[in-house]
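Standup notes
- DV: blocked on the single-chain target, sequence here:
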Amino acid sequence: MSKLKKVSEFADFDRMEAIGFGDLLDGGNTLLMEVKTGESSTSSPEVGTGLSGNGSRIVLMNLASGEKTYITAGGEADESPRASEDGSKILFLSRVEGKYQIFVYDRVKGGVRQITQMRFGASDPQWSKDGKQILFTSPASDEMDEEWLQTKVNPKEEAAYRREKAKEAVVITDFGYKFDGLGFAKPEVMQLFVVSAEGGKNADGDGMVNKAKKITKGTSNFMHAIFDPDGKHVVCESNLFCNKEVSIMTDVLRIDIETLEIERVTKDRMVVSYPNPIRPVFTKDGQHLIIGILDYGDKTYTAGYPSCSLYKVSLDGKELVKLTKKTDECFDNVQFAYNAHCGKGLEKVRVSSDGAWVYFHAGWKGECRVYKVRLDGVEQEPIPVLTGKYAYNGMSAPRGGEALVTRCETDKPEAYYRLREDSGELELLYQSSQNYLDTTAVSHAEEITFTTLDGESTVHGFILPPQNREPGKKYPAIVYVHGGPHPFVTYGFDLEYQCFAGAGFAVLYCNPRGSSGYGDLHRNLNRAYDGSAYTDIMQFTEEACRKFDFIDSERIGMTGGSYGGYMTNYTATRAKRFKAYITQRSVVNDLIGYASSDMQGSSRDYPTFGEFMVHQVEKSTICGMEKVSAPFLILHGEDDLRCPVEGAHQLFVALKDSHPEDFPIKMILYPHVAHDQPREKRQRAHYYGAMLEWFEKYL
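- DV (later): unblocked, structure below
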């Protein structure tokens, strides 16, 4: 099989499929799926299907015959399909004239109808239980007229509108005024709308789009919403009544669609909404909600992001029952998987077909597992349902004793499986990127585990060999540190790692202390910054070199993004082990993050602000750049608000200022890129090309 020879071209990204939203319909005989096939797929749409050829497809596949039916509105992209409860209709989003709108495909009558015409687009659509209404979110402010919000946008008018909006002053009176990827707070926030699913405009242009009703107001975001089974209320999460200084603080709210009256279901609880949200789910009788709450009051809580437990709560909020009990293997009821790229859009918490159990996802030692507990119990030990060296990451609503789940492995990208609830058996229904797997030499990751030098914990890591490696040959290696620090690297498929393996590098990645998925003690945030995680990574590197003789111990580089970038900076000022560094969107100076990051800090524990400032700088990696002894590349997005780009500038200047003129130092900034790697095709190719060129040159 061939291997990738030029990561700079990153052709593999355009050959890969990504699957997300999905469901099992018609008694489990039909698979509904969303498949993204990469930008290059636009040149070869399916023949005779009406497919728009946009690289994002909605497919209905008969599991007996393999016959496929494609659903499209003919827009620039079709995605996010959701079937009505009876399976007769499918709603989806299609990007039309630059905005996502809601469309409905009628499986009985045939045809696609456009339901909304939102000026700023629609997102996160949800069916009512009877299939007659659709709930969705869209940006809006109280000053915006509802008719204007639902008027078709004239491109010239919109351009003029945006030019005028860009001139407006930003008025700030409270915390939470910025967020990475969104910029400074605007008057419009994510509001909830309800619209009829009947009627709409058909493909011939006959009929009219439906008028949606705005059911929320104010300057708070409303998200993760669902219909109450009674069809008269909506349940959502919002920080409407919360302290804005605590950016992730949210409540569960219940809203009367007719009167717009809001009931606060939870109060003074940290409902899980970020970074891996749990959408509330109703019990079968419609009398209770299942929600995730952060365990800030737990005695085992150390520092950082606390674990989550599942609760059953009555709609009036008076009855709150904790369902799950912490165990050694399931101490958290949500997973922070760093590289389990599957199941986009599928929920992580579901109620079983018979209504007796609740399923949820949780991480353990690199696995992304599925567990269950009974809904009539109190603080029960979770029962494993799906385990093994896999990454499970999403489940459809169970029906008739079965559900759709997604999983991936270190050498297999995401796939859809049928889960039979009674036996726990799995049946493969669709493997994404099969052509890629048939023609490309994909590497399978090996693993190692070792006790930390201080004896406090155990570290687990992965070694991805170069593709098509030759016996007896030595290869350079890249130590890749994950971000967070609380997420964990998994048994999932990581295309970036595979591409470096295809270019002839071994890729080493582990879960040092600070990572979740290994217990509260291991996840202690303090250990991520006090030198413990650094020691773990250094020990991991030596263990990998000792155990795997194909690694050239004299040619090892390091990289990582966000916290991984911080650890790259931290290591570069202390170790002589690595021959080249690439820091990505990194944490550099805590004093910058204090006020300029969207996750602002606090100086309240210090007697004076001056002492606070000095301490913030002294404990930052910017102090010590003169000690860096290996070539150093800085990659950063210009619009990064999580780790502001000023940190990259300081890092570059500090390195240049403290090293000889010929010492290899380079900074590359990417316009219009926030706290992430670039997604635009040209920028992405440049980004990975720069990484490969740097490591090839200096390793």
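- Follow-up: The chain is about 15% helix and 30% strand.
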